[in-house]
Each structure stands twice: as structure tokens, then as C-alpha cells.
Amino acid sequence: MNRMDRLMAILIALQQGNQTAAGLAAKLEVSRRTILRDMQALSEMGIPLAAVSGPQGGYYLMEGYQLPPLQLNSREALCLLFALEGLTRYADTPFNSERWTVMDKIKAILPRETAETVHPMLDRLEVEVPKRKYTVPHLNELLDYASSNQWVSVFYHSMNNRRRLLIHPLRIYAANGFWYCDAYSQTHGEQRIFRIDRMTELRPEDPPEVGEGDGDRHQGKSEPQTVHIRAKLTYRGMLQVERDEHVGEQISAVGNEEWLADFHLPVSEWHWAVQLFYALGTEAEVLEPEALRREVCAKAAGLLAAYEANHT
């Protein structure tokens, strides 16, 4: 990014609200000193900048100053259309019609030269999203509850249970073709991740009393117990484990075609770990803890016994 593009990017960022020099430096991938020089240059150009010191301070534009509408360059248009293209691959979203109409509007306003540059590149870029068949009729409702910091009662259909849960939605995100809600569950007494397509019958609830049940964990007064897991992975095993958002970054190469997964897992997710390494088969070997090795072996032995019994 050249200096003029960077100055314009700073102005656009300032139109959204206060910006610190450190925050702008991180966003634009330059040093804090460079941002300070850019601020000086903008002031000398007559841009009405002001600054507030302190933790909540930063630079801002004086009230009443607005930039005229700006055209997207080819890279910006590609970035935006690429992101929207990924959203269209989800079976259901909070923006089912908007995701298409906004793409059409962006393409319609692009100058011809920009469009001719963007479209061939867009044809060769792809966000890989597994094809799923589901609907999330309560996604918008849950999004409203999460944004308003509202506790919610939901009827949840898990693989093992169907019951009502009291949860506090913390964030909503899309991954692997599904929509998930990261929430504190008063019912479980810990933070958990829930598939939103498995939720029905949502209704707002009053927050539980502080200290009720295991609610003190939600206030950050204690940390959940964890278990240290180490496992060797083959190349294929590494590709599968790195997809997991929680442990995918805890993998390191230790040799030729060999990787090591080294992470701490909440005790409550023990059965998930057993199923993970059992499913990986020969693509992984648990090194520790010994109890996890034994459970994976026992699960494999049970499968072998079932096959042998059916064969005879």
C-alpha cells in the first residue's frame, strides 16, 4: 500500500470513530511512527484532526467533516466479493436474500476496467464450505439475544439428549458449513459450543442469581480443569486436526512427515478427545495421558470384537 492509499485508509477508519495510532498501525501493517507521520501529513493538508489522550482516547475527525463517496479499487472489490461468495455457500444464513442482492449491486457499480480485472480472479478463488442440508430458523432471533446480552432458554437436540437449557450467548459464528453459538450454559455449569440448527423454542429469561449453581465460573472466578494431551500425527492426521478451531494451532512439525499435537483440553471434553483419536485411526498415536490411550484402545478393541462376532 502506497502512502496516498494509506492516508485515505486512515481517513476512512477515522470516519468510523476514534482510532489509536497503535490500532491503525496494526490494521495497516506499518509502524506506529509511520502512523504518527501520516497524521502530521493529514493535518498539514487541512484535515480537521483532533486527539484525546488516555486509555479510551485516540485520533478523531472534527464533527461535520465527511469524505465524499469512494470507488472501490480492484483489490478491495475482490476482497468484498470473495467474502460474500463464501457466505453464499452456507445452506442458511441471517442474510439469505441480501447476500445475493448486495453482490449484484457491487458488481453493477464497478467501473468496467475494475470488473474486467476482478471477475477472472474471482473465478479462481474459492472458500471451501462442506455442503449441508439444514435450516436455522432461530438464527436471527439468537443473534438479537446475543447482541443484547440476553439470557435464553432453548430446547436443544444433541446427539445424546433432548432437553431445555439455560444459556448466555457470547458469540455466533459459522464454521465447517454450520452455524454455532459459543455460550455459557447454566445447565452444564461451563462454557460450551452449540449447533444452532439443533435449537428450537427459544425464549428470553432473567439472568440467574450470581453464585447460583456453577454460575460463578461464568463470572471468571475459577478456571475449568484441564488435561494435557500429546499425540503424534501423520500428514493426513495433521490435516484433519488442524481444522479444529480450538486445537488446530497447537500442532508443530517434529520430523519428516510427522507432527505433534500438544494442547490442554477441558476435562468436560474428554469424550470428544476419545472419539477424535479413535476416528483418526492409524493417522494418530496418543502419547499421553495414558488413560486416553487406554480408552482409545478399548474403543478399537470393542469394534474389532463386534466385527469378529458378526463374521463368525
TrEMBL record:
Residue ranges of domain WCX in the record: 226-304
Chain spans, region Disordered: 203-224
**Lineage top rank: taxon:** Bacteria
| SUPFAM superfamilies the UniProt entry points to | Winged helix' DNA-binding domain
Per UniProt, residues of the Helix-turn-helix type domain are 6-59
Supply the alphabetized keyword list. DNA-binding
PROSITE patterns from the xrefs? WYL (PS52050)
WYL domain boundaries: 138-203
Has the keyword Ubl conjugation been applied to this entry? no
GO molecular-function terms, A-Z: DNA binding
PANTHER family linked to this entry: PROTEIN PAFC, PTHR34580
Q: Please give the name of this protein.
A: DNA-binding transcriptional regulator
Tell me which species this is from.
Paenibacillus rhizosphaerae
